[in-house]
Design brief:
- By secondary structure, this protein is an all-alpha fold.
- The protein has helices at about 5-25, 30-40, 60-95, 95-110, 115-125, 130-145.
- The longest helix is centred in the middle third of the chain and has 35 residues, at about 60-95.
- The chain is elongated, with a radius of gyration of 23 Å.
- The chain starts with 6 loop residues before the first helix and ends with a helix.
Amino acid sequence: MTKYLDTRKAAINALEDFALMENLAELPAEEMGEQLRADLEAPASPRLDGMPGAHDPKAGEARVCATLDKIDFLGERRRQAREYLDWFLPAWARLTDDERFVLETFFLGNGSQEEAVERISDHFYVERSSAYRRKNRALERFAKALYGA
């Protein structure tokens, strides 16, 4: 079935999401909800924009429910990030150091694609076309490690 999937593009997307997912997975659960829980205890401040306020007897309940929903959402995102890392890291470990360097330079590093090609060319003492071939081979190998295609 993987012949019908664009595993190359999916592997690129997985590489581009790595930094975000790593940060989400490493963020302590207490720290994520700490500010939100503090908001639960703080009274609502009055609006100072000059507009008359409407009385809503359930505004406090709505605010508590919305905050609890945010805490649940953050917990779910953290769980998804951990699942992502459990899937991503074994495939990443199957690559050689050179392949990881190439993929990090192209997809995880800062700068343009031209700068990435130049860095890889300088690192391996190869021409630009060889740098692109290295990237393509590393990406193909990574996609196979992720999707088994």
